[in-house]
Design brief:
The complex is a heterodimer of chains A (about 450) and B (about 375). By secondary structure, chain A is α/β, with parallel strands linked by helices. Chain A is about 50% helix and about 15% strand. In chain A, the strands form 4 sheets. In chain A, strands 3-2-4-5 form a 4-stranded parallel sheet, with helices on both faces. A 4-stranded parallel sheet of chain A has the order 8-7-11-12. Chain A has a two-stranded parallel sheet with strand order 1-6. In chain A, β4, α5 and β5 form a beta-alpha-beta unit. In chain A, α1 packs across α8 and α7 packs antiparallel against α8. With about 375 residues, chain B is α/β, with parallel strands linked by helices. Helix content of chain B is about 50%, strand content about 10%. In chain B, α4 packs parallel to α5 and α7 runs antiparallel to α8. The radius of gyration of chain B is 20 Å and the shape is globular. The chains are: A alpha/beta (about 450), B alpha/beta (about 375). The complex binds iron/sulfur cluster (SF4) (2 copies). One iron/sulfur cluster (SF4) binds next to α4, α5 and α14 of chain B.
Chain lengths: ~450, ~375
Amino acid sequence: MTTNMKYKTKPLDCWQWGKELRLEAYQEFLKGHEEGKLMVLGCAATPYGMLAGLGDFVFLAGEPYGASVAADPPFSIPCMETYEAKGYSRDMCGYMRNFLGSMFLDKYYFTGGSFPKFDFAWSVRHCPAGHPKWHQIVSEYQDIPMNYIDDETMLAVDGDPEHRIDYVAGQYLDTIEWMEKVTGRTYDDEKGIEAMRTYFRNESLWGEICLLNGAIPAPLDIKSMFALMPISMLRRHEKIATDFLTTLRDEMKDRIANEIAAVATERYRMCMLTPPPWSFLKVFRYLETFGVVFVGTYVYLINSGEVKFLLDEGEAVPATVPEERPGWPEMKNREDLCRTIARWRAEHPFQSHLDIRKKEYIIIYNHWHGNAYLLLMNRGCVPMTTSMYDFQRDMQAHGIPVAMFEGNFADCRDIDETGVLDRLEAFLEGQGIQKLPSL
Amino acid sequence: MSAIEKFHDILANRHQYAMDWKERTGGKVVGGLCTYVPLEIVYAAGMLPVRVLGTHEVQDVTDRYLFPTVCPFCRDTLAQGLKGRYDYLDGLAMGRTCSHIQGTFDNWRNYISTTLVYYIWFPCHRESPRAVDCLVGEYTGFKEALEKLTGKPITDDGLDKAIELYNTNRRLMKQVYELRKNEDPPITGAEAMEMVVTSQLMDVVEHNKLLEELLEELPDRKLDRETGLRLMMIGSEMDDIEFVQMMEELGCTIVIDEHCSGSRFFWDEVVPGEDRLAAIASRYVHRWPCPAVSSNFSDRFDRVLKIAQDWNVQGALVYQQKFCDPHEFDIPLLQQMFKEHDIPTLVLEFDVTIPFGQFRTRIEAFLEMAELEVL
Ligand code: SF4
Ligand code: SF4
């Protein structure tokens, strides 16, 4: 573990393309209405490819927007202060606070111009404290219609699941009619199905890309993953994203075959469950000076991507897209589409209940050949943090070293950066990892 | 002993009451996290449904399980389970609502050995016309699990009887609430709260009997105190009777409430129907919503405003379990609504234990200010 290796390294060939695609995605938000596109607000886990049935659209996912704002303290702090001045509490979802503050300030992060006005808000419920409540405030403030899908069936542990699938699929069906009503547009099933096919394909591709990072040395580090993730997160319904993700995957395979590393000095591999504080990404660069590479974040493996965890076998494998799954019918009409989405989401690991998640955390750690977990006790997100101590104990019971720090992933005022770096340094020293002399 | 004293007594000895009930009846007891567990089905199975509550005592047993930003109520309830105070439970059920209580449930299932631990996946999109059917599916599984636990079927007759008993319970409590509209209510807010909380803990037949006694006693009851300002209490979980008593001693009376140990819990009845589970499901889907399962402000706010006006309130105490995000979302707009209707509000944030002295000062100042507005 402590041997000092020096791997070959080089930038990704597709890096520039990725950067352009990411930029395009952000710029789309600006031109949406000008170009006659629907502007829709939602949460990143929403199967927004469905919206293609209504025509061209721009989907602004609240969390990545909140994360972008959070990464820029001079912009973020006034947003949060404005939000707080309205009487909202500091302990609520960190992403939401940045988002709503930016809306109240009427400042759009990517341009500094006015905050976008949405045509409607539509989202999966996703987090019991989260999106519908969050959108309720936007809907009230901007006077726009909102609707949502309650589909966290992965939380269910008892009873027969079929009625839940009926309920979720039914909500998707109802939502199509609702969208037709609020937009005055007619829904084109074919277009919706086609975009969702692409969406599933891209989720699966991103999952596969994350899994490839199990190779030693890791072909991608977490910073590059965060930079490329917006393509899978924001453009999941687009064929151009499939082209890019396929290229990226193939390039990763090539890097693996040729032992090309993301971090030349890789000697200690860490995994995370959640994102780090966005204003504190320097932690990764700093830890590289110890030869530490962060190989993946569970949440982004399964939130912008999809993998299948084989719990009994203790393996994680790329997810097969719905129409290639045995027993899953071809999507021919909107009923098939809605049922397929409901089933896909029901099998999605995100927010699956505690026991399953614990197993998945161990599986992915082994798959990524981790040396330790770094856990963020995130004061900015209840669902991700509620049972963190339990996860920590379980990991330790599996012999996994765990480093922890407390903070807020979206509030730069809520983290003691020096204290955290000291703690991490002490942790690494305890693991026999010192700062690399050559650096 | 008056009915009010009996409620008080039972609440103070709630665990003993449940254990005695088991011994007297030979029945089993099922705990409920949140108020989304269908009492009617549990009771029809011959079991006693009891709401799992905390004690407002300082504790240090949940830190190994729940992150400190989980709401104090959820930490307190889990602590009770971990300390073995609910060891007499034969079952524990939860109706899905918020992430915090989900954490309590998950940890209960893993670390506390209750025979049956059951998760009812409540359909939170209550505006969806499909929610009731989904909940019937959940109840079908829950019913089967209870039948397995008792070894006896839950019959339609049993469900009818339970529906009728709980509807009666709700109606009787509403009658008591009606009397709180009086210029000088015959019951304090703390006493009313004891009545509602005991309805979550007692055999409904016995509670109904006490309610009937209470309704006989109340018309002649004169309180040895000034009513003072008429206040409403509104917010998340609230069963801190001591706090309400302290508050009422400062020269006000809580005449109405909107929280889950008050009106929100019992207001709506089951409309009987041929399909019993569907009738019960419809009640829980359409009941006065907890903000955790409501994404429509007017749904909750219209009802809040109506009772505030009907009970002629002169101020509102909005209290907030620390970190309870579902309620936090509503507070600024709720305050705005009260302001538009000239109802002064005070927002207090509660933890497992509360700073009584500090709260007393804030409440006194609020009462003075609200009194000036009334004058
Ligand atoms: S899961 Fe966390 S980050 Fe996402 S909306 Fe909920 S509180 Fe916010
Ligand atoms: S709704 Fe609020 S008070 Fe109730 S359990 Fe959830 S967080 Fe706690």
